[in-house]
Design a protein that fits this description.
The structure is a homodimer of 539-residue chains.
Chain A lengths: L5 E4 L15 H14 L3 E5 L5 H10 L7 E7 L11 H8 L4 E7 L2 H8 L3 H17 L3 E7 L1 H7 L1 H14 L3 E6 L6 H14 L4 E5 L6 H10 L4 E4 L13 H11 L7 H4 L2 H12 L16 E2 L2 H9 L17 E2 L7 H10 L8 H17 L7 H12 L6 E13 L2 E12 L2 E8 L3 H14 L9 E9 L10 E9 L2 E9 L2 H22 L5 H8 L6
Parallel strand pairs in A: 1-2, 1-8, 2-3, 3-4, 4-5, 5-6, 6-7, 7-8, 9-10
Antiparallel strand pairs in A: 11-12, 12-13, 14-15, 15-16
Helix pairs in contact in A: 1-2, 1-12, 5-7, 6-7, 8-9, 9-10, 15-16, 16-18, 17-18, 18-19
Chain lengths: 539, 539
């Protein structure tokens, strides 16, 4: 009964225009997978005609089995040329994607000033380019750049640009508020007019320069638009693009449109936070729907009302978008997540009420210190196993030292580590190209003689995030380490105001996790025999 | 001709409900002065019945000569009591402010669930409280809590609450979207109905839980509201209050309402940043109108169009709100970005074609190594100045050493730095809670004896980003440092596979930049005299 709205995510293209946002091809592939799991309809990957990173993305994404349509981005053909020979259009076609978006001018002022061509030539550029894409059987979307500014200046020309795209065969006419300066009432009025004039489905693409991108997207949908283009967390140039993390729940929970399948909406908070981690951009605590404080209650009156009925100060149930209520005076967060995680690990936690309480307290305390277990499953598993089973530490680091010396171009970095493995003390030293690398090398050197299979483990990702950035070089940092090997990938976390100590914690957890899982594999594992011989693991 | 909209700032009251925001009485007084200079009409200082901090504020603010009306906040009288004896109402009257805002229930559900009284008693509470304030000659505003939720549930009761306040003599009926869950079209419709039903001027108070607080405030004004309540930078509980920094320019520049005097609007960016500094909350670079990236251009095509006419990609002139255009230099951008940056710095680069080519190559090479100058204006400026002018290094770091030792719970971290200032060698040592902090401390200790004003500079932000994360602990990291002081904020960058070395580079650039700008200030600067005496700066 409710109208279907198609969600077009351009985090990987327009989102990377945001200041300080830079994504590798790997990052983009990871994000694409998450967006696909969330259930967006289109994922714009980039511009296959522009750089090697995007070319690599389009090549590799084909091997992934995604439900979302991967789309490529480009411009209408160059002026005074032939679409069939346009290198950039040809790259899009060759990239093998099922759909593409072409941006083209719709504002006469831009045709004259930026493009420096005639109004007629711009219309021809639009027609030719869409005709070419349609000839190659692609789904084709027209991003009508500056459509609203153009319409306000010269409505007939702006509509003529849309008509040319429609004549060329465009499947969607996406009206762009490129400069982000249009008011919601204008958006509603202009989209309504377009809907009267043209038959092709309409999309909306807004920017947040007036802090109105979400409202403008909603106004367009209410006037008849059926596709919304935006980015996760509103990343994008200047003040950002329209934030899909707010638009989707507003459309679905408030205005009764269909966007995602209901059960997918619960993935929203997790997806938003994942993207923020990968992009290494701090998510504002107060971000609508998905922020850590979006359902946090501080005021005493608010809290006591919330205890009576959450509806008193919550506009939706936070669980609908995968977020949770937090009471800032006495945090009760995340119990259900932890219980479900423990159950998943086969730990009998319901019958251990005292232990459950203790581990909840410990996790709450760690999160307060800056730990985040959403991106560090292995560290969370170790915490839970430590609490609910009788795992004994397989090894213990007695101490470590770092020495670094720099003068002119030369630099030395050394680490000395003292490790205790089942009562046997090992002292090793190693160099590295930085202190963390030296430490990592020294620790592996010490352990590999006991656990040769450690050589098969490598660190596949390393992230540093500053918490409380205002404390500058004395600020705490959170280090996330991803390790790969033994047919598995796992992530661990460390927090300290000392980046080396935080890295060290995460490295330690990574190796502990690996040894724990080695000890459980049967057969040829000399490590597991060693571990059993020492009686180090009792379960 | 254009309608006057009254701006009611509640940064000092509702804004302090935001997570992590805490203002001393001193902070509040400083902010009140800035808000008054900006020209807002009402400044809500706090609740004189609630705590000593607010009592001190109201006492001291009376001695300041402000044009804005200082207002106090409280609730309607307690249930089953007498307004004349209500301690909290009496405190408001005693505080001596000319105006006050009382919050009172307008949602029947809240009367039953939170207040736990009858609908009639709530109406009596409203009437009695306003009658008392008016009896004492105060301007009185009714913050109708949850008005929109209440109206949707029981329109007649919500309107009855407003009528009671009007009968009690309230000067303003402020409709609150307390939970932030209402859509703009609903706001427009409900405010229009209220305007038909009642004669008292209407205000609007919204929250940002759906990322719609700005749009909702505009919709209310378009439906007839004449007072807007909000906070600077949108601070407030959960997702924040309506952001006045966006609402004011939208009303004034886009919708032709009068809010501030025209020349005051230019103070907006400065005021917003000042409040963010005092509140110690990092301002998002992409914040609309006032953010550092609000008029920053990254994409090459955008930049080349901006050079032709700024209107191509700017919805307003940034100067209207006291902000400025920035051209970001990045991998996505062409040479035009660098040339315009150099021109902005007043460097004569067109006549130095050979130098221009060289610096382009150098920047390209550095970006390839992982440097990113879009977030590091100061480092870019130093590079350009080094290439195009004859700046001499004011100081040189001969060497540094780091020693770190960890065993059990104890940890030591020390740095030794050897610096050459104009031929004079200084050796200093310092501790820190991490290696970078120790290094920072040692370097400042060495330089402060030559440049005392370095004490006025502090690092306001520190970011670490791992590049090529696949190389794990041997990966390169990029460090971005933001420094504040000398009426300025600047950012610098360092890259290395050693996080300490990268931090060191960024710290070095930060201090070089500060000294360069100190040396250009005339007058009392002992550093500039020192620098000139040594002949260290030749331009």
């Amino acid at each position: 009964m409710s109208a279907q709205i198609f969600i077009f995510d351009t985090t990987l293209r327009d989102g990377t225009q945001g200041e300080g946002i830079s994504l590798s091809a790997d990052d983009k592939l990871k994000i694409a997978q998450k967006l696909d799991a969330l259930g967006v309809h289109y994922i714009e990957g980039g511009n296959p005609g522009s750089n090697n990173k995007d070319i690599e993305f389009f090549k590799r994404v084909k091997t992934m089995k995604l439900n979302a349509k991967i789309t490529a981005f480009g411009s209408t053909r160059r002026k005074n040329s032939v679409a069939e020979h346009d290198a950039s259009l040809l790259r899009i076609i060759e990239s093998g994607v099922p759909a593409a978006t072409l941006v083209g001018k719709a504002w006469d002022f831009h045709v004259h000033t930026a493009l420096q061509t005639t109004l007629e030539e711009n219309l021809a550029m639009i027609f030719d380019s869409f005709a070419l894409l349609k000839h190659h059987g692609m789904e084709a979307m027209y991003d009508a750049e500056h459509f609203f500014d153009g319409y306000k200046n010269n409505p007939e020309y702006a509509l003529a640009a849309l008509r040319k795209a429609q004549e060329g065969g465009a499947d969607w006419l996406v009206l762009c508020d490129t400069n982000g300066g249009t008011m919601p009432n204008e958006i509603h009025e202009i989209v309504s007019r377009v809907k009267e004039e043209l038959n092709t489905p309409i999309g909306i693409h807004t920017h947040n320069d007036c802090e109105l991108a979400v409202a403008n997207s909603l106004a367009a949908v209410q006037a008849g638009a059926r596709q919304v283009q935006g980015t996760m967390n509103g990343y994008g140039e200047r003040c950002g693009n329209a934030n899909l993390c707010s638009i989707i729940p507003n459309l679905q929970l408030k205005l009764a449109y269909s966007c995602l399948q209901d059960d997918r909406l619960r993935l929203l908070t997790g997806t938003a936070r994942y993207v923020s981690e990968i992009a290494n951009v701090h998510m504002p605590v107060g971000q609508a729907f998905v922020g850590n404080a979006a359902f946090a209650h501080k005021g005493g009156i608010h809290v006591s009302a919330i205890m009576k009925d959450a509806k008193t100060y919550e506009h939706i149930e936070p669980e609908l978008v995968g977020n949770k209520q937090r009471i800032l005076v006495s945090e009760l967060a995340g119990q259900s997540n932890i219980i479900s995680k423990a159950t998943e690990l086969g730990l009998d936690i319901t019958s251990n009420n005292e232990k459950t309480k203790l581990i909840m307290e410990q996790i709450k305390d760690l999160e307060h210190q800056g730990y985040q277990f959403e991106g560090a499953d292995a560290s969370l598993e170790l915490l839970l196993r430590d609490a609910f089973t009788d795992v004994v530490q397989i090894f213990k680091v007695e101490s470590f030292k770092i020495h670094m010396e720099k003068s002119n171009a030369s630099m030395i970095c050394e680490a000395i580590v003292k490790i205790n493995v089942g009562g046997q003390i090992v002292l090793t030293a190693a160099e590295g190209n930085g202190p963390v690398n030296a430490l990592d090398n020294a620790m592996r050197k010490a352990l590999v003689q006991f656990f040769p299979r450690i050589e098969q483990i490598h660190l596949s990702d390393y992230k540093v995030r500053v918490i409380d950035e205002k404390d500058a070089t004395a600020a705490k940092v959170r280090v996330l380490v991803e390790s790969t090997g033994l047919d598995n990938t796992w992530s661990t976390v460390g927090v300290s105001s000392n980046v080396i100590e935080a890295s060290w914690e995460a490295l330690l957890d990574s190796i502990r996790y690996a040894l724990l899982h080695m000890s459980k594999t049967t057969g040829d594992g000399t490590e597991s025999e060693f571990v059993e011989r020492l009686g180090l693991v009792n379960h």
